[in-house]
Amino acid sequence: MSHYVFNDPIHGTMELHPLLVKLIDTPEFQRMRNIKQLGTAYYVYPGASNNRFEHCIGVSYLAGQLVEKLSLSCPHVTDNDKLCVQIAGLLHDLGHGPFSHLFDGLFITSMRGKIDWTHEQQSCNILDHILQYNDTVRSAFTQYNISDTDIMFIKEAINAKQYLSHSGKWLFKGRPREKAFLYEIIANERTGIDVDKFDYLLRDCHHLGLNCTLDWRRLVHMMRVVEHKDEHRIAIRDKEKDGVFNLFYLRMHLHRRAYQHKTTTSIDLMLNDVLMLCNDLIFPETQLSHAIHDIPLYLTLTDSITETIGNMRDEGQPGLKEAKALIHRIHTRRLYTCVYESPPTKNSFSNRVEILAALTEQEPCLHEQIALSVVKLNFGKWGPTGDPLHNVLFYDKSGELVPQQSYLEYSLLGPNSWSQHQLRVFCKSQDAEVIDKARGAADKWVSSLPSPRVENGVE
Length: 459
Hints:
The protein is mainly alpha-helical. The protein has 2 domains: about 5-260, Hypothetical protein af1432 (Orthogonal Bundle), CATH 1.10.3210.10; about 335-380 and about 415-459, 2-Layer Sandwich (Alpha-Beta Plaits). The chain has helices at about 20-25, 25-30, 50-70, 80-90, 100-110, 120-135, 135-145, 150-160, 195-210, 215-220, 240-260, 260-275, 295-300, 305-310, 320-330, 350-360, 405-410, 430-445; strands spanning about 5-10, 10-15, 225-230, 230-235, 335-340, 370-380, 395, 420-425. The strands form 3 sheets. The chain has a 3-stranded mixed β-sheet with strand order 3-4-7. Helix 1 packs parallel to helix 4 (about 80-90). The longest helix is centred in the N-terminal third of the chain and has 19 residues, at about 50-70.
């Protein structure tokens, strides 16, 4: 069986199984060419044009590299296990909507609140759609002995957080408890160390023009399967703690520099308003925010939705003129203005309705002109304190697990706080007088707050 060779700017020459290529050549997978990995960050960083298509191929390749390494310390890993893990890596982001997390999180939440839907679950739904309607893929699954149980495992590996039990019960059906480590390769909800993160950190840094110190090959080399509490888990050599911490630090750094850049946030809010204005205009049979329940309709949605809206004929549809004006403002760089940004604090700013009411109490006319956004900076929150090393298993030179310790216990270089938040207040209007009023309202609200109490160097 000959593998297909891909040349990648991040990983170099990659060999992929023929079944993976069958999946790549489907319209559902090709759609990801038109969904940017970094969403609206492309409007800030001109090089940030990388897409979900190349990222998913990279994750599949890294999944194959890691599962091959783990099989050296766990002989009962089968070729079927290896292939299924690579399929999960390839398909894990199929369910993303336009501009990735802008649609999946901000827009859906704005329109429908917190609902039981995630892009991971949508990826699984799209896999079911492919297997139902694509005879070529279905035949290939049969040819390479991918059973119904294997398909269940693939979907569980993509959406592992849905099946993890805090009580310790084993809820996975695709693989038994002794193969628990297979669920830590694509989306590791226990430690946050997975090949998805390896690829997007490397790929995003490359396209953003930022230095990347992540050495994924060394991390993979230092991983092995160990027995822990009746499960076989992934552990990392103890001397690699700095390398592990660097992984999480790099993630936080990218959130600060790009993912939650102030200008990126402004454009996110503007595009979200565009989508909300056009919620009833994109599809005649359903709302845009409800297209998540109709896979064929959902698969028509990509980043080109802004061009679709821009080309729609204005025949008196409510909101369309305003949406087009917002798109034009983005293209001409007349963005929402940030009139206030709080210092880093432990305050989660969860009472946003109250904050907006307080900001506009003296100026009710500002209610429709102010937008709030909360920047969340952390190291991953894999642990009760937020310490990213808290849940990571480490082994020593003899192969034995070492006692868990926090990064602060291990190193003097740890941060003062694992999690920080910042509140940003934006004014939508371009009118200088309205902007001054919004800035004044923000200043007045801040001056009315009690003096912050400083803890560990963070307010």
